Amino acid sequence: MPEKLLKQALEAIQAASTITALKEVEVKYLGRSGQITELLKTLKDLSPEEKRSKGQEIQKLKNGFTEAYTTRERYLQKAEIDAKLQAEFFDITLNQINPQRSLESGTIHPLSRLQREVEQIFAEMGFEIADGKEVESEYYNFEALNIPSHHPARDMQDTFFLDHPTDTKHGHLLLRTHTSPGQIRMMEKHGAPLRIIIPGRVFRYEATDATHDSTFNQVEGLFIDQGIGLAHLKGIMNEFLQRFFGDKEIKVRFRPGYFPFVEPGIEMDMLWKKGNQSKWLEVMGAGMVHPNVLKAGGLDPEKYQGWAFGFGLTRMAMLKYGIDDIRLIHSNDLRFLNQF
Amino acid sequence: MKISVNWLKNYVNIDSQTDWKAFEELLTIRTAEVEEIIDLAGSFDQMVIGKIESISAHPDADKLRVTKTNVGSETLQIVCGASNIFEGQTVAVALSGSQVRWHGEGDLVELKPTKIRGVESNGMICAASEIGLKDEVDGILDLSHLNLKPGTPLAEALNKNDIIIDIENKTLTHRPDLWGHYGIAREIAAITDEKLKAPAFHTKYDQKLPIVIPVTVENPEACPRYLTLTIEGIEVGPSPDWLRTALENTGNRSINNIVDATNFVMLELGNPLHAFDTNKIAGGKIIVRQAKKAEKIETLDNESKELDPGMLIIADAEKPLAIAGIKGGLHSGISHETTSITLEAANFNPISTRKTSTKLGIRTEAVQRFEKDLDPLLAEQALDRLVKIILDLCPNARIVSRKQDINNFTYKPRKVKLDLSRTSQKIGVEITPKLAKELLEKLEFEVTLPKTKSSTTIEVAIPSFRATKDINHQDDLVEEIARLYGYEKIPATLPEVAIRPARPNTERREKHLIRDVFSLELGFKECVNYSFYSLKTLQKAGLNEADHLKIRNYLSEEQTHLRTSLIPNLLHSAHENLKHFDSFNLYEIGRSYRNIQQYFPLEEKHLAGLVLLPKKDRQEPFYLAKSALNLLLRRLQITSLQYQRASNPDQNPLAHPNKSAVWINPRTKQPLIELFSLHPAIAANFDLDKYQVACFNLHYTELHALPRAELRYRSIPRFPAIEFDISAIVDAEKEVAEFEKSIRKADQNLIHNVELFDFYQGSNIPEGKKSLAYRITLQAPDRTLTDADMKQIQEKILTNLQALGAEIRG
After folding, report:
1. What is the pLDDT of residues B173-209, one digit of tens each?
2. Tens of pLDDT, residues A50-100
3. What distance in Å separates the CA atoms of residue B46 and residue B51, rounded to the nearest whole number?
4. pLDDT by residue (tens digit) across B429-487?
5. Which is it for strands B584-594 and B525-526: parallel, antiparallel or unpaired?
6. Spatial contact of B677 and B571, defined as CB atoms under 8 Å apart
7. Which parts of B486-558 fold into alpha helices (H)?
8. Could you tell me the residue range of the domain that residue A79 belongs to?
9. Closest residue to B528, CB basis, from A109, A214, A227
10. Which of A103, B21, B594, B662 has the most CB atoms at less than 10 Å from its CB?
């Protein structure tokens, strides 16, 4: 009985083509002597057990009605607004007559400014500027980079996973935790030799505070050729940082670091001077591309070798401009943006 | 990981005059990142042992008393408020100049001679918390049991004359051998050219003794090695000073001599160990097996954990005793009644240990080590070392079982061939066989030099403690050589490679050009928003959730879905800025991610933006945004797009159904740019209803692929132009484009420019009409135009306009 009533009611709701008509349907079912209301009235004559089961049934019916009613109401309201809006004439072919030119100028976001500088410097040194996917697969983000599942290194890169079917080769779909998957994609696409940088947005499952954010930008670099070694990494990085910071005195320091996709693995520090103080500042991870990674990219590790590096562009922006809270980067607060 | 220098000195010579700053740097650039070097004695500077000689009442305060305290060199008058002082008591005295924490709270303050309620007080008799120790009793710290001379420096009295090296654990991820003091000592010996001295091990075992607790290992792949030994006559009690100090100075708690001994050996050699109370092992046997469904264990810290089938446990005949390699159980732990112990020294599979630990949410020192893949040979050395220490600690103890060794691994010494010419290339420095041998042998690698002079390949035998995960391949040895040689000695050189022009990235170059146009030329502000938004936001924007990819483990309700459009977040940015600004133009270049029911989503690049003005502003943001887009297309030399009214605006839920236009890509016949006024309902959803907002979205990936028009110079007219104005009243509901077209039709050759310079609608103009005023410029390339030319064209224009129902006003 209630199912049949609900079916009728839903049909009536769908048939109502104006708000007025819809209101009438409501009265018919939920009004003082509406059909659902009447049904509710019959409850008082029932035994407590019957009351409970019957009551639930009627409540379900009422909920179903209300839900359909609200949806339809919203639809009709929007349609009514739209009909009104449609009736106004608007000339899309017109242009603004005598636009007031704003004296305030526009601004380029600090990340974009720095990315352009980084791209220019590397382009001057013969590097290609490449691009990667932001939604990546477990294969490219981890396996191909010599980080098998259950490897402790996966802890270092807390990952956002997507609610999405998995794939036999690719595993889970995720937000890339670093720009390094681009290494594999570029090796697959272009083979060797290879001299590229891949700037881009990366994501970490990391609570936000003044120094951490779920989103930041990195620049990946890759130099594969014959006879390439760590001395060249030092040479290129000295050159890059000196140009980037406009300071000929800048020096880099290598120390052992662990990243499964490089061997030897290196942490690179930069001698940072502020006033008469100077200290070593961790700026990037780097190293000689691991033979397993070269193989995953389809290259012969006996023939080709080279290095890779990765640094945080967001961090560089904070260093270079003295930004003390990473949350400003994505705040889009004009009081922040207007300074660039 | 905290490493004590006093502890290290057992295995390697470290000069007490060491420059710790330089030492920190050396260890950092050779081995692993040192986070900090802490001088434990530093915080006890100007603190000594004192003896209270007399106590008298304070003349002016009931709760205070005045002491004469002997601090060695002199006797000081010190006022003290604690009730637990007595004459003859040995106490910790902070002298003037020391740093203390009043009542154990707040910042450190420097102590100075002072008067307390009129009585002079020179120093302070300290409570534990006031000098950074744990309070065990109320009141001041009573050190009478230590039996020390007044004046003894407190650091010495408390065994705090130690330097602690705090190493960043992350940099040890690949080094199972460095998870103990001995491993670190080995590195230090190698990098400072000192000798390494091994600790003492128990060596004499009577293998004729019976097995007391027989062990069965059911899952050999998860437990490659399991050794046990049973010792009786154990007296459980507090640890001696040296053991307690070693543990406490490295941040560990002292529990009792037996547990401390197992922890000490773990922190020394890196292999976790466990001691069971033999009498609590039900059925007198140990089974290393997988947990059964719903099996439970109460861990040492009184937490009950339900185990999953497949998790490796150590069980007796009845129940789980410990979670293998992770944590011991409460029941079989060492207590003060324990007299017989069974020691476990094992090796567990790193992956299964790690999986179980993650699943149970238990991270322990043991997990940290087993997950790094420990050397199975180390388990036996750790047992031998533990036995040596326990027998020293408990002189009445005796071994009552044979050493039981269940091993399911085969150890084969690994040899790796290392090509030194390749090594030299990779490092960028010439590495001779002699140099390689010298460097590698410092770390206990054994090197066989090439037989012939011409060969550059050496053979390296890998010590077992480096052979589990760390060193597999010759490149792993390149790292050892490079770091021991010294990364700082590698020269910085630029590669000599063939010039290969880089493939151009025109897309990236053009994106920067767009920024120049929008930011520098048009005064827009560039935004960078997150790639996510909330379910609520996408609903507020009228978007369809099914098109979205959802983050499974999102961090905040604000970041649950990947954006399919850049506009909702820009609307949010606009709203946030209304607190300080009432008109602005924003844009963003970024990606959208659309779930297209394939593995990878459709990741597309967009340029989106908005123009926001207060309602009272007479300008129309739609037209401003339109001009901006037209200028952009001109700068990008794109002329092929067709601008038109959006034919089905209801496909764009954000758009006002009427104030909506598109630029159509002639190739796909699809809109490539959408320009629209924000739908009033959506504007209300984003609290922007007091403003007028126009938005646009440009499909950048597609735009970039469009052909570009060539820039061609047109010669500057040599003959003068003629200008005249026409003003007309026309139907309000006719598009101005129609009038411009009809004007231009009057003479395709001579009409050079048509500019609408005035537009008016309102009082003085009849209802349903609008007033337009055009300035028309005539120009001929080859002659000076005459009045007759102008008259003729003017006439034609008027006729054309009248044909459209215009009433000419002048």
Report:
1. 889 999 999 999 999 999 999 999 999 999 999 999 9
2. 888 888 888 888 888 888 888 888 888 888 888 888 888 899 999 988 887
3. 16
4. 999 999 999 999 999 999 999 888 888 999 999 999 999 878 888 999 999 999 999 99
5. parallel
6. no
7. 506-515, 535-540
8. 2-87
9. A109
10. B662
Which tokens is B30 given?
């050779």
CB–CB of B425 and A229 under 8 A?
A: yes
Interchain proximity B520–A215, CB inside 8 Å: no
* CB nearest to B173's CB, from A98, A134, A258: A258
Residue type, B326: I
B189–chain A Cβ distance below 8 A for any pair: no
Asked if B627 reaches chain A (Cβ–Cβ under 8 Å), the answer is yes
In the structure, how many helices (H) and strands (E) does chain B have? Answer: 20, 40
B788 touches chain A (CB under 8 A): no
Looking at residue B188, what is its pLDDT? Answer: 97
All residues of chain A having their beta carbon less than 8 Å from the beta carbon of residue B549 are 135, 162-164, 173
High-pLDDT (> 90) share of chain A, % = 60
Tell me which residues of chain B, numbers 210 to 249, contact chain A at a CB-CB cutoff of 8 Å. none
Give the one of B170, B492, B577 whose C-beta lies nearest to A334's C-beta. Answer: B577
Name the CATH topology of B215-407: Phenylalanyl-tRNA Synthetase; Chain B, domain 3 (3.50.40)
Dihedral over Cα of B126, B132, B136, B138: its sign? positive
- Residue in chain B closest to A269 (alpha carbons) equals B29
Residue A94 included in any domain: no
CATH number for domain B42-157, candidates 3.90.1300.10, 2.40.50.140, 2.30.40.10, 3.40.50.300: 2.40.50.140
Nearest to A284 by CA among A302, A267, A264: A267
Cβ–Cβ gap B29/A267 under 8 Å: no
- Give the minimum alpha-carbon distance from A51 to chain B in angstroms, rounded to a whole number: 38
Is there a contact between B497 and A225 if contact means CB atoms under 8 Å apart?
A: yes
Closest residue by Cα to residue B320 from B289, B366, B362: B289
Q: Is the peptide bond before A264 cis (omega within 30 degrees of 0)?
A: yes
Q: Could A230 and B490 be called an inter-chain contact, meaning their C-beta atoms sit closer than 8 Å? A: yes
B305: number of Cβ within 10 Å: 18
Enclosing H/E stretch for B757: strand B751-760
Mean per-residue pLDDT, B374-378: 96
Nearest by CB: B553 against A92, A161, A239: A161
CB contact under 8 A, A254 and B488: yes
Distance from CA of A21 to the nearest CA of B (A): 23
Structure confidence by residue, pLDDT tens digits, B388-433: 999 999 999 999 999 999 999 988 889 999 999 999 999 999 999 9
Domain B506-704, CATH: 3.30.930.10
Considering CB atoms only, which of B503, B550, B589 is closest to A128?
B503
User: In B366-394, which positions are buried (b, 16+ CB within 10 angstroms) versus exposed (e)?
Assistant: bbbbbbbbbbbbbbbbbbbbbbbbbbebb
Q: Is there a single domain that holds both residue A127 and residue A229?
A: yes
Name the CATH topology of B414-489.
Phenylalanyl-tRNA Synthetase; Chain B, domain 1 (3.30.56)
Q: Which of B170, B491, B573 sits opposite A231 (nearest CB)?
A: B491
Look up residue B747 and give its two tokens. 């003479």
Q: Look up the pTM and report it.
A: 0.85
Q: Other CB atoms closer than 10 Å to residue B508's CB: what's the count?
A: 18
Query: A162 to chain B: which residues are within 8 Å by CB?
Result: 549-552, 562
Q: What is the pLDDT of residues B661-689, one digit of tens each?
A: 999 999 999 999 999 999 999 999 999 99
pLDDT tier, A157 (very low <50, low <70, confident <90, very high otherwise): low
CB B278 within 8 A of CB B286: no
Q: How many CB pairs under 8 A join A and B?
A: 308
Q: Average pLDDT, whole number, for chain B?
A: 93
* Total domains in the fold of chain A: 2
The reply to whether A196 and A328 lie within a common domain is yes
B352 CB-side CA count, 13 A: 21
